[in-house]
Amino acid sequence: MTTRPADKAGTPGEIIPQPGIPLPGKRRDPDRIEQMLRVDHAGEYGAVAIYGGQRAIYGKLPHKARIARQLEEMEADEQAHLDAFDALLVEHRARPTALGPVWNMAGHALGAVTALMGDKAAHACTEAVETVIEQHYAGQITELRAMGEDALADRFDQFRMEELAHRDLAVEEGAKDAPGYPLLSGLIQAGCRLAIKVSEKV
User: Which one of 3, 84, 115, 122 is least enclosed by Cβ atoms within 10 Å?
Assistant: First the structure.
């Protein structure tokens, strides 16, 4: 919120809502909540597939046991998120995205390709994906709190913090030192944002 002086378009001290920031006390919007659940379910589905694709490569290599364990732990977190969204879809009578099989194949392929590029590229994939997901959750949490949906917002915030932990681990493990990091990260983030937009509608 900002205020502005009197002019032809407003009065002194008039509150001007900023674009994209919902006003407190906004009416609950079931359609928007359904949209959130659908896209988040799709995102967690894709995340599980990405880690599964990476583990399919590293799990066969004894000298990659350390990163394989890290990926297994992060995949378990994403599976827990996915299970939660499975239940939330039923609770809110929301339909999942029709593109689940597409995101599964795309996620698995992205995971396998980045794993084959090396450990740092695999971590760069995690860092890029989790950066977008964390930002996405943050925006949804703001919307939900404005609607008075604090319980759902708290649940999303828990997931957001776990995604941040994955991102931070990836950075610590050298994600930003991956060959071609700016291009690789940019492409993955752009793909994630596109998938979000599509999954909200389809």
Answer: 3
